[in-house]
Q: What sequence folds into this?
């Protein structure tokens, strides 16, 4: 995610921000129903078990220096991004906060999406995600 | 049970690879931290979600390979001599490519990497990418292969492969539906390099095909506020040479005049002017060449002609200097000199060494090397015989030297500014 001036994730509804992209963004992360609600399904804010489990085009290029010599890979993500960790627990489906839950992506154990626990208006979902801001710690260790 | 489509049969895999390549091109040109770069990354999310773990491993390795295109320093710097095992594995690689087992071909090439010359491994990647029909990526690897060691790469290619590579390069240049010109820009260099064995009509038709893309590329670079001026001057130089190939001499002269008025000290443009006017005004051409080397650039073709001037005028010290500069430049360009050019260098080293009073065995060694490299060269043979007689009977003799036309021809053989 993008790092804000205070070192925590930048809140927003663009790519690389703490929040989800919404329609009509062609790459919207969620579907909003006719009542303006976001349902707890498999769509939400993408997260991964460890930053090295993220898609390489989302891992900042500057991390190549310390990682890719050990493995055949080259990260192509923007250097405006930083990798953040939330919490200490294992990466398993379940509640993340009172209002948010983690759902694993189909056939994946290392990546998932953060979704609303219940159907909520999109604005509420964005606010719930924004509330986690200070729980994220920049962690780019291997 | 039918297996799902995997790797290049998987549309998500192919789409991801195409976007990954575009992103690497932007990274190479320092243009990825832009809205265009972000848009490509956004487009990559969806296909990424549809990759299996094996496919993820494969695209990661491909990303590392694509990075080598812009960072040749990361290629292995030392190569081990070919071993039977490597030769056998290269045959296996060919089989894998032919049978469409591309991910296994990538794996095998990855393990062979430390044993291959960088030019060879880039060439094998050209072959893999050609086999899967991704010609833009393929041609980019061919460019990389030529840049690492032009002659090795060319020697490894069959006549059919060279023809195919030319056609593919032209196909990329002709594809007007591809908006990012930098992709087609990558095709220009290999294409020019592959034109050496073309007949005159073929060269003309190739030049005709390249010119519009090159002019678009120049137009695009002209509009960039921070365009690399050296690169722009080089593109103008290529344009001059293409116009000359098409016998559009007035235009070529006009472009050259205009480019030189804008970049009066650009060594590549001065070198081109010198080469073009050498026939009719060698003194003026040498003035250009002197300016080229005064700028600290030592293009091999220019060094060869300056060494020739020095040997003709008995300036032994400068002759040796430019012979060595020629060899250094070829090494820096990772290009092996043609045998006939190398033979001239050795012969001139012999003449200069003799003039400077170096010991006879050194002079003899230079001559022997020249004779070995160009066994059919009559003048070298004559010099060898005369020098042997001189050693035996202390007879006086005159060195036989090539005429300027022959030397110019050999220098022009090296004169491939895009290679």
A:
């Amino acid at each position: 995610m993008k790092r804000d001036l205070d070192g925590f994730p930048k809140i927003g509804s663009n790519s690389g921000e703490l929040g989800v992209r919404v329609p009509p963004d062609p790459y919207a992360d969620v579907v909003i129903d006719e009542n303006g609600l976001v349902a707890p399904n498999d769509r939400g804010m993408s997260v991964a078990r460890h930053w090295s489990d993220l898609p390489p085009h989302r891992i900042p290029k500057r991390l190549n220096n310390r990682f890719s010599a050990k493995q055949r890979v080259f990260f192509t993500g923007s250097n405006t991004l930083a990798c953040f960790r939330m919490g200490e627990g294992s990466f398993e489906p379940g509640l993340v906060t009172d209002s948010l839950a983690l759902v694993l992506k189909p056939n994946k154990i290392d990546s998932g999406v953060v979704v609303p626990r219940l159907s909520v208006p999109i604005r509420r979902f964005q606010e719930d995600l924004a509330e986690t801001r200070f729980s994220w710690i920049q962690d780019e260790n291997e | 049970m039918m297996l799902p489509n995997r790797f290049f049969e998987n549309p998500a895999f192919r789409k991801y690879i195409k976007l990954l390549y575009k992103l690497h091109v932007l990274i190479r040109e320092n243009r990825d931290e832009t809205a265009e770069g972000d848009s490509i990354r956004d487009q990559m999310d969806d296909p990424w979600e549809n990759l299996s773990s094996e496919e993820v491993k494969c695209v990661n390795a491909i990303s590392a390979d694509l990075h080598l295109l812009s960072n040749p320093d990361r290629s292995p710097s030392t190569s081990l001599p070919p071993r039977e095992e490597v030769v056998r594995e290269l045959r296996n690689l060919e089989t894998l490519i032919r049978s469409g087992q591309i991910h296994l071909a990538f794996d095998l090439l990855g393990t062979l990497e430390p044993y291959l010359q960088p030019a060879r491994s880039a060439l094998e990647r050209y072959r893999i990418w050609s086999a899967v029909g991704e010609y833009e990526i393929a041609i980019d690897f061919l460019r990389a292969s030529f840049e690492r060691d032009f002659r090795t790469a060319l020697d490894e290619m069959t006549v059919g492969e060279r023809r195919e590579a030319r056609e593919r390069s032209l196909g990329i240049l002709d594809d007007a539906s591809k908006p990012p010109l930098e992709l087609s820009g990558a095709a220009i260099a290999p294409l020019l390099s592959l034109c050496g064995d073309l007949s005159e009509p073929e060269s003309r038709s190739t030049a005709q095909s390249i010119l519009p893309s090159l002019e678009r590329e120049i137009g695009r670079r002209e509009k960039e506020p921070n365009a690399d001026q050296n690169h722009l001057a080089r593109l103008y130089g290529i344009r001059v040479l293409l116009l000359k190939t098409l016998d559009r001499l007035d235009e070529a002269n006009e472009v050259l005049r205009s480019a030189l008025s804008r970049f009066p000290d650009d060594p590549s443009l001065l070198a081109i002017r010198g080469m073009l006017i050498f026939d009719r005004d060698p003194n003026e051409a040498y003035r250009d060449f002197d300016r080229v080397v005064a700028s600290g650039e030592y293009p091999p073709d220019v060094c060869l002609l300056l060494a020739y001037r020095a040997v003709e005028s008995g300036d032994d010290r400068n002759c040796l200097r430019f012979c060595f500069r020629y060899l250094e430049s070829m090494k820096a360009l990772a290009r092996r000199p043609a045998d006939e050019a190398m033979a001239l260098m050795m012969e001139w080293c012999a003449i200069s060494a003799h003039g400077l009073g170096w010991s006879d065995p050194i002079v003899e060694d230079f001559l022997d090397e020249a004779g070995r490299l160009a066994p059919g060269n009559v003048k070298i043979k004559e010099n060898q015989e005369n020098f042997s007689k001189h050693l035996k009977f202390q007879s006086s003799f005159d060195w036989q030297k090539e005429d300027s036309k022959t030397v110019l021809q050999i220098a022009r053989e090296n004169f491939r500014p895009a290679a």
Summary: The radius of gyration of chain B is 25 Å. DSSP finds 20 helices and no strands in chain B. The longest helix of chain B spans residues 200-223. Chain B touches chain A through 25 residues (CB under 8 Å).
